[in-house]
Amino acid sequence: MAHHSKDLDPYTSPRAFYGSELRRLREGSGLSQEGLGDRAFCSGAYIGQFETGARRPQEELSRSFDEILGSGQHMQRLCALARESKHPDYFADAAEMEQLAHSFCEFSPMLVPGFLQTEAYARALTGAAMPLASDEEVEGHVGTRMERGRRLLDPTGPQLWAIVHEAALRVSVGGSEVMREQLAHVAEVARARRAIVQVQSFAAGAHQLMMGVTILMTFGDAPPVVYTEGAHTGQLIEDPALVAQNQASYDLARAAALPLTASLELIEAAAKEHETP
Which helix (H) or strand (E) holds 229? Predict the structure, then answer.
C-alpha cells in the first residue's frame, strides 16, 4: 500500500478518517488486522486496505465492524461520507479497485471500452445515454472518463487486455469523423503496445459474454474480482466460483477472437471506412 496506516493523516479525506477510526477502534479492542478480519469474514490484508485508505469502505462490512467493535453506528456513518465518488455508485467500487490491479481484462460487446475512448466519442455516447443532462453534467462525465483512461494507459498502470466485438467498430457513435478518430486511437494504442487489443468478429457467433461488459482484475495481494455492467447498472463479483466462471468465459472469448495482427488490420480498415470521400 502507498502508506502505512500509522502514517496516514486522518484529516486529508473522509476515507482517511474512516481508516484512522477503524484502526483506533480495532487496536482499542485488542485485535490485530487478521483478528478483525477473521471475525468479519475477510482477510487481514483487506482490513489493512481500509485502514490505509486504499479501498473504498463497504456498507455491509462497516455494519459488521460496528457490531464487532461495539461502536454503535459510528463506522456506518463514516462509511456514508467516505463512499462519495465522482463515478456512478454502481461502478465506484470497481473504479477504486482498478487503481490496485496488476492486470485488467475487458470484453466489450457493443462499444469501444471506456479506457480506450476519445473525448469526442465519450461525449457523443454520454449525450445519447443522458439526453436530458446539462452540458455541464455531460462534460463532468467525459472528464472523469478521460482521467480514467489516462490512469489505466499510463506505463505504471495495470497490464491491459481488451476484446472488442466487431459490432463496436460498426455502430456509429457521433458520426463518421468521431468514429474515424476513435478507431484510429484504438489502433494507435495497439501499435504502441500500451494494451493488447483483439477483435471478436461477427463470424465468431454467439458466446457467453455477449450480454454486457465484463472486466476481470487481478491483484498482487488479493483474490481476483469481476465487474459486469449493463444499462445504468453494474455488479462487482468477488465470489471465487463466479469469478472462475467469468474467467473461463473470457478465456473462450479470447480464443475465439482474431489474432493481434488481424485485429489491428480490421480496426484500421474500419477507420478508413469512416473517412469522408
Answer: strand 225-230
Contact 149, 98 (CB under 8 A): no
Which pLDDT belongs to residue 138?
A: 93
Q: What 3-state class would DSSP assign to 212?
A: coil
Q: Please state, in angstroms and as integers, the Cα–Cα distance from residue 237 to each residue in 105, 215, 232, 234, 240, following that order.
A: 14, 10, 17, 10, 8
Write the CB contacts of 244 (distance below 8 Å, at least 6 apart in sequence). Answer: none
pLDDT for 126 beyond 50: yes
The 3 state secondary structure assigned to 109-156 is CCCCCHHHCCHHHHHHHHHHHCCCCCHHHHHHHHHHHHHHHHHHHCCC
Tens of pLDDT along 57-97?
Answer: 888 999 999 999 999 999 999 988 877 766 777 677 788 78
* Per-residue cell: 93: 467500487
Show the domains of the chain with their CATH numbers. 5-82 (1.10.260.40), 89-273 (no CATH)
State yes or no: pLDDT of 40 exceeds 90.
Answer: yes
In angstroms, rounded to a whole number, what is the distance separating the alpha carbons of residues 77 and 73? 6
Average pLDDT, the chain: 90
Query: Do 16 and 24 form a contact (C-beta atoms < 8 A)?
Result: no
**C-alpha cell, 223:** 483474490
- Angle subtended at Cα 207 by Cα 261 and Cα 92, rounded to the nearest 5 degrees: 85
Q: Which three cell numbers stand for residue 205?
A: 457467433
